[in-house]
Design brief:
Chain A has helices spanning 2-9, 71-82, 87-94, 98-110, 128-140; strands at residues 53-56, 85-86, 114-116. By secondary structure, chain A is mainly α. Chain A has one domain (2-121). In chain A, strands 2-1-3 form a three-stranded antiparallel sheet. By secondary structure, chain B is α/β, with parallel strands linked by helices. In chain B, strands 2-3-4-1-5-6-7 form a seven-stranded mixed sheet, with helices on both faces. In chain B, α3 links the parallel β5 (109-114) and β6 (136-141). Chain B has a single domain (16-195), classed as 3-Layer(aba) Sandwich (Rossmann fold). The radius of gyration of chain B is 19 Å and the shape is globular. The longest helix of chain B has 21 residues, at 174-194. The interface between A and B is large, with 66 and 69 residues. The structure holds guanosine-5'-triphosphate and magnesium ion. The site of magnesium ion (MG) has 4 residues of chain B, from α1. Chain A: Residues 1-25 are annotated as: Disordered. Chain A: It holds the Pfam family DUF742. Chain A: Residues 1-12 have a biased composition (Basic and acidic residues).
Chain lengths: 141, 201
């Protein structure tokens, strides 16, 4: 990643208009990846869906556990122990980029502290009965 | 006790999660709409951008790649303990269009918000969902002071398929937004009922 940053910095002087996306909505993400020791989600075996839900395993309740977990790992387990949460919710709640949360959750899956549910597979519409329940649920809000 | 929890007796409920996208031009009311029906929080994602603000297509090598974060609106609607609907408000600027591919994967449907003063701003979103066969509903956000047009003339201007629903809405109003969401899901239901996969299951 730092290589790429180097390269883009060495690019011939961009016109100011060219880099206008470096505004409040867009900024560098180098620092959060320190938590993942530089690993990006590309390094994990599969990309966890934004709405896949992270559910604690019984081992997550066990006091004698892995000392190698970072505070962010611990906080993810804590939040999910309150209520299972999606990858997107964890990212928003922890104010971390989605990619960082993917890596951290991937670690927890590897340690068998959590598992991740599969959302409806892409390119496949949810079951008709679920859609009916969604409509009823929305009307009842 | 790093996690400060006593052991549980009850297994966790694993909710079914679904998502609906909220698209539309700059300043059309996407954030307002998501906030009207859910607690809204910004979600940060990060992407590799090129000079042109598009995914890298290898034509020019890696020298112009930049990793950047993009914020989008994100809301949760808990329909039942075991059924959760998430709303994703996509960034309005064209330069973030590529982000949609991940968001659109597995989406139940989409809302395209439109403003009659700038209808052309919603063309790109309509094209996008049409091409991918994602069920969508067009919601015209009725700002005060904007001239009201009959739904038929708006439909014509947007060149909508007859089965795509077009509704007038107030993005600030919870009931109004609920109606739009119901319309999207109903449209998805019609398509699901018709699809061969649904028949065989
Ligand atoms: N009068 C009126 N104002 C609205 C309505 N919906 C949104 N607004 C206002 O219009 C402005 C833009 O609304 P946003 O919800 O921020 O629009 P957005 O689509 O999220 O904008 P971007 O994220 O910048 O593309 C805000 O000042 C809102 O308060 C509406 O239905 N009626
Ligand atoms: Mg907005």
């Amino acid at each position: 990643m730092s290589d790429e940053a180097e390269r883009s910095r060495r690019e011939p002087g961009p016109t100011p208009g060219h880099h206008h996306w470096f505004d409040d909505e867009a900024g560098p993400v180098v620092r959060p990846y320190a938590m993942t020791r530089g690993r990006t989600s590309a390094a994990t075996r599969h990309r966890l869906d934004l709405i896949a839900v992270v559910v604690p395993e019984p081992a997550a309740d066990d006091p004698g556990r892995d000392q190698t977990l970072s505070p962010e790992h611990v906080e993810i387990v804590e939040r999910c122990s309150e209520q299972p949460q999606s990858i997107a919710e964890l990212a928003a709640g922890l104010d971390l980029p989605v990619g960082v949360v993917r890596v951290l959750v991937g670690d927890l899956v590897e340690d068998e502290l959590v598992h991740v549910t599969r959302p409806v597979p892409p390119a496949e519409l949810p079951d008709v009965s679920i859609l009916r329940e969604v409509i009823n649920g929305l009307r009842a809000l | 006790m790093a996690f400060g929890r006593s052991s549980r007796t009850k297994p966790f409920v694993e909710p079914v999660t679904l998502k609906i996208l909220v698209a539309g031009g700059f300043g059309v009311g996407k954030t307002t709409l998501v906030g009207a029906v859910s607690e809204i929080r910004p979600l940060r994602t990060e992407e590799v951008l090129t000079e042109a603000g598009r995914p890298v297509d290898d034509l020019h090598g890696v020298e112009t790649k930049t990793t950047t974060t993009v914020a989008m609106d994100f809301g949760r609607i808990t329909l039942r303990e075991d059924l959760v609907l998430y709303l994703f408000g996509t960034p309005g600027q064209d330069r973030f269009w590529f982000l949609w591919d991940e968001l659109a994967q597995g989406a139940l449907g989409a809302i395209v918000l439109a403003d009659t003063r700038r209808l052309e701003d919603s063309f790109a979103a309509i094209d996008y969902f049409e091409r991918r066969g994602i069920p969508f509903t067009v919601a015209v956000n009725c700002f005060e002071g904007a001239q009201r047009f009959p739904a038929e003339s708006v439909r014509g201007a947007l060149d909508l398929d007859p089965e795509v629903e077009l509704l007038m809405c107030d993005a600030r109003d919870r009931e109004s937004v609920k109606n739009v969401l119901v319309a999207v899901v109903q449209h998805a239901l019609v398509l699901a009922d018709r699809s061969p996969a649904a028949v065989t299951t």
